[in-house]
Design goal:
- The N and C termini lie far apart (about 60 Å).
- Helix 3 (about 70-75) runs antiparallel to helix 4.
- By secondary structure, the chain is mainly α.
- It has a two-stranded antiparallel sheet.
- The protein is about 70% helix and about 5% strand.
Length: about 260
């Protein structure tokens, strides 16, 4: 395993290397701490108390230092009471590490799905770290969309980009990329009306984006395919008007 992992950017791509602690053998001091946590949590009558929840979180943090993910995850998922919010935020971090360090595509996908589920819980509860958790959730969803596209699951890819679009808020560039992704994937999936809807959004709402002329061209061709001749002509005219130097502008001019 590498000695570094990374944090994902908003589109789920790994860009920022950060140190990763090698699992190694637990130090004598940490073994004593783990034994003390276990003894405390085994005390009769402490289950479900606020103190037990906080101790469970601290125990999970210790286990995470040694990348003992399974034990830490089980512990964090069991936390209830006042410490539950802290446990859920820590669980998002654990699932991020699992996503980034997974050896297989299946493991990465499972970690991302779990991260999204827990992140939604954290966001619903509110708190000081909601913005960071929301950003990680969007990164996981973006990675899932791209993974679906890479394996040819175009309907799922389109749905993933569609869901992301509604969640991107003021990030205009990412929203345009998501709209383009939704149109592209739905078009390949043969979901023509959905493809048209998203390509129209790309062409009109995001008309300043560099990809917009290509969206106009794809719209014209889709309308031709389903014999919407008037709409196809209008989009060809649109392409010539807005991008006269586009590689397909001459063909579009002839088609009008």
């Amino acid at each position: 395993m590498s000695e570094q992992t990374c944090l994902p950017d908003p589109r789920g791509r790994c860009i920022d290397p950060v140190p990763r602690v090698a699992p190694g053998e637990m130090t004598a001091g940490d073994r004593e701490w783990l034994a003390a946590y276990d003894a405390f949590l085994a005390e009769p009558g402490l289950q479900g108390t606020p103190e037990a929840g906080q101790v469970a979180v601290e125990r999970a943090e210790l286990l995470m230092r040694y990348r003992r993910w399974d034990e830490a995850e089980t512990s964090l998922r069991a936390v209830s009471g006042p410490a539950r919010e802290q446990a859920r935020v820590l669980l998002v971090g654990l699932l991020l590490a699992r996503w980034m360090e997974a050896a297989s595509a299946g493991e990465r996908s499972a970690a991302r799905v779990a991260l999204v589920t827990v992140a939604v819980e954290v966001e619903a509860a509110g708190g000081p770290q909601v913005a960071q958790v929301a950003a990680l959730r969007r990164a996981a969803l973006w990675a899932q969309a791209e993974e679906s596209e890479a394996v040819g699951d175009d309907a799922r890819c389109g749905a993933a980009f569609e869901g992301l679009y509604a969640d991107l808020g003021a990030d205009i560039h990412a929203a345009a990329e998501a709209a383009d992704g939704a149109g592209r994937c739905y078009e390949r999936a043969g979901l023509t009306q959905k493809a048209i809807d998203w390509l129209e959004r790309m062409a009109d709402v995001h008309r300043e984006d560099p990809r917009a002329p290509d969206a106009v061209l794809r719209l014209a061709r889709l309308h031709e395919r389903i014999l919407n001749d008037e709409q196809a002509r209008d989009r060809y005219l649109d392409l010539v008007a807005r991008a006269p130097r586009h590689r397909a502008a001459a063909t579009a001019a002839a088609a009008r």
